[in-house]
Amino acid sequence: MLDGLRSADIRMVVADMDGTLLDDAGRVPDAFWPILDELTGRGIAFVPASGRQYYTLEEIFAPHRGTLSYVAENGSMVMHEGSLLTSSTIDPALVASVIDTVREADRHGRDLRLLVHRTDGAFIESDDAEFVVHARRYCVRLEHVADQAQVDGDVVKLAIYDFADAESSAAELFAPLVGDHKLAVSGSHWIDITAPGTHKATGVRELQALLGVGPEHTVVFGDYLNDLEMLEAARWSFAMANSHPDVLERARFRAPSNVDAGVVTVLRQMLAGR
Predict the structure, then answer these.
(1) pLDDT tens digits for 211-262?
(2) Which helix (H) or strand (E) holds 270?
(3) Which of these, 65, 15, 60, lies nearest to 270 by C-alpha position?
(4) 262-272 and 32-41 are packed helices; what angle lies between their axes, rounded to 10 degrees?
(5) Which of 4, 80, 190, 208 has its CA 20 to 30 A from that of 199?
(6) In whole angstroms, what is the distance from residue 58 CA to residue 81 CA?
(7) How far apart are CA 33 and CA 265, in angstroms?
(8) In whole angstroms, what is the distance from residue 223 CA to residue 209 CA?
(9) How far is CA 220 from CA 129, 204, 248, in A?
(10) If you average pLDDT over every residue of the chain, what do you get?
(11) Of the ranges 4-8, 49-53, 130-134, which one carries the lowest mean pLDDT score?
């Protein structure tokens, strides 16, 4: 497999963050930075693709500020060299419905929390200390408001945190609400809702079109359910060893786990053959 990858004309590398590039403490492996420099030097675009907020991703990759492209907010916000390329908007009626559903479920002991995302930041209503810690991990631009229903402006993503099990809540509470909007379980505790037809793959394909890169020139790494569509945007699709079973089934190839720096391992071998 790696012999084929080493000889392929790779022009773009796309990596999910949590559970993929990042270790379990949320850190980029030290060994990744020289690889990123080499990718850039060879004219290979590196694209972080995440459910995280763009501003959080920009902070992680601060040494390369303004030079990378990003697929943020599960595809709802695509950035290229510091400028907004595309964004998508959720129907305000669905935003109101999700806010009401989270509040009602919480009153009945479901222990859910909500983040409302715009292109300029995210908004929380809860002051639950544990949830705030989780929210700040993914959103460096975060504002506490008394009423999320009063947040003005276009909403690009709704992120629900379930202290129990996100997959069951997604199916039971939110799948009946979303209609043609996209519902994705992005972690064991996170559910993301985005605009119709919006997921990481839409962002990847926007960048492929902009840069003139086809699937045969693209490597993608992912580990969870919100990465499934993105795997189809690349000939070279890798599931991490720690991936959700559905991702392991869908991806064409395997990489070592995130805690074993699997992205680094594959890219190092890819570059060594060139």
Answers:
(1) 999 999 999 999 999 999 999 999 999 999 999 999 999 999 999 999 999 9
(2) helix 262-272
(3) 15
(4) 40
(5) 4
(6) 11
(7) 13
(8) 24
(9) 35, 10, 13
(10) 95
(11) 4-8
Report helix, strand or coil for 218.
Answer: strand
Helix, strand, or coil (residue 255): strand
Task: Burial-class residue 109 by CB neighbours within 10 Å (0-12, 13-18, 19+).
Answer: exposed
Structure tokens at 131: 């949830």
CB-facing half-sphere around the CA of 233: CA atoms within 13 A: 24
Q: Tell me which DSSP letter residue 76 carries.
A: T
- Read off the tokens for 93: 């009626």
Tokens encoding 170: 């997604």
- Phi and psi torsions of 22, nearest 5°: -75, 145
For residue 243, give every residue at least 6 positions away whose Cβ sits within 8 Å of its Cβ, in sequence order, or none.
Answer: 19, 222, 223, 224, 251
Question: Would the CA dihedral through 181, 186, 191, 192 be positive or negative?
Answer: negative
Closest by CA position to 48, among listed 25, 32, 31: 32
DSSP bridge partners of 113: 161
How many whole angstroms separate alpha carbon 145 and alpha carbon 122?
A: 10
AA letter at 262: G
Q: Which two tokens stand for residue 248?
A: 């392991």
**DSSP structure string for 27-40:** ---TTHHHHHHHHH
Q: 3-state class of 123 per DSSP?
A: strand
* β-sheet bridge partners, residue 95: none
Dist CA 237 CA 254 (whole Å): 8
What would the pLDDT profile of 140-193 be if each residue is shown by its tens digit? 999 999 999 999 999 999 999 999 999 999 899 999 999 999 999 998 999 999
| AA identity, residue 216 | E
Shortest CA distance to 219 belongs to which of 25, 8, 3, 27?
8
